[in-house]
Automatic annotation (TrEMBL):
Keyword Coiled coil on entry: no
Pfam families: DAGK_cat, YegS_C
Record keywords: ATP-binding, Kinase, Lipid biosynthesis, Lipid metabolism, Magnesium, Metal-binding, Nucleotide-binding, Phospholipid biosynthesis, Phospholipid metabolism, Transferase
Organism ancestry: Bacteria, Bacillati, Bacillota, Bacilli, Bacillales
Entry protein name: Diacylglycerol kinase family lipid kinase
GO molecular-function terms, A-Z: kinase activity
Length: 295
């Protein structure tokens, strides 16, 4: 008999995660799965449960929560030998991973994907000893995201990040960065932001790296160097048009491995959570996990 673990964050998505459990259970039992439900209570519970699911050779793990729960769940499986198939029921505010995979953002519709057997392999990013599915960001602009309160997120959604970002840009918060990629190339200078995206969806905005595919094995990297406010304003237009890659003020490159260091203390932001300070090494684990997706 096949086995499925439902990892449920009861606090996510306006506390409605548990209302989807009965239907998921019914669908999976009809497909011959034995289903176990676990509820998270605090940070890293999802990682621990998912690790148990790998060790006990579960066939499927279903994550019910926002990007935070998903990030923790995936961190529980990436370094395991047996990695169950993953299903995502998006219940957060932004749901970048679901957006990148075209998983319906309405949870009711995402649940219906469990009825078919369509799945897709997805790259995983590695930053030092930690893993990410969407993005690693470095610099003052990335740090601004920590200033966004849960109340702002609920009220303004992804726009809350843009608002904090504008505050940082207007105070000229750049960091001196040394960025080495694909072994022999180096960029050195003061930057507002370095971004390495695995998918096309970041902060709910789906046009940052329009040609990033979830399984292309590449980090899509952007450097936003120090520049005046006029140039910055025009970059916002490029972002909104999905043309950031072509903007001459922005450095864009694709790489399989990136090393970043600074002579100052600079923090990283890994899938929206605080990560290691610099120096960091970024790598891609190509097609490392398999996710239930739209046919
Ligand atoms: N029972 C719980 N109560 C409160 N927090 C929890 C609980 N279980 C897990 N958490 C923590 O809540 C964090 C945020 O959850 P998640 O991102 O899934 O939902 P969300 O906040 O609704 O989504 P988003 O961040 O997109 O708004 C998780 O990273 C986890 O550490």
């Amino acid at each position: 008999m096949k086995s499925a673990m439902l990892i449920v964050n009861p606090s996510s998505g306006k506390e409605e995660a548990v209302t989807y459990v009965a239907e998921i259970q019914e669908i999976l039992e009809d497909k011959g799965y034995a289903v176990k439900e676990v509820q998270t209570e605090k940070e890293l519970d999802a990682t621990k449960y998912c690790r148990d699911a790998c060790k006990e050779a579960y066939d499927l793990v279903v994550s019910l929560g926002g990007d935070g729960t998903l990030h923790e769940t995936i961190n529980g499986m990436v370094d395991q030998e047996h990695r169950p198939l993953l299903a995502v029921i998006p219940l957060g505010t932004v749901n970048d991973f679901a957006r990148a995979l075209n998983i319906p953002l309405h949870p009711d519709e995402a649940v219906q994907l469990l009825r078919n057997d369509h799945s897709r392999k997805v790259d995983i990013g590695k930053v030092n000893e930690r893993y990410f599915v969407n993005i690693t960001a470095v610099g003052a602009l990335a740090e601004a995201t920590y200033e966004v309160s849960p109340e702002q997120k609920t009220r303004f959604g992804p726009l809350a990040y843009v608002m904090e970002g504008i505050k940082t840009l207007s105070s000229d918060g750049t960091s001196p960065l040394t960025i080495q990629f694909d072994d022999h190339k180096t960029w050195e200078g003061d930057a507002f932001l370095f971004l390495a995206a695995l998918t096309n969806s970041t902060g709910g905005f789906e046009r940052l790296a329009p040609d990033a595919e979830v399984d292309d094995g590449l980090l899509h990297c952007f450097i936003l160097p120090r520049m005046n406010m006029m140039r910055l304003a025009s970059i916002v237009t490029s972002i909104l048009r999905g043309e950031l890659q072509e903007d001459s003020s922005v450095e864009y490159f694709k790489a399989r491995r990136v090393e970043i260091s600074s002579r100052e203390t600079v923090k990283t932001n890994v899938d929206g959570e605080e990560g290691d300070p610099l120096p960091v090494v970024l790598d891609v684990l190509p097609s490392h996990i398999e996710v239930i997706s739209v046919p």
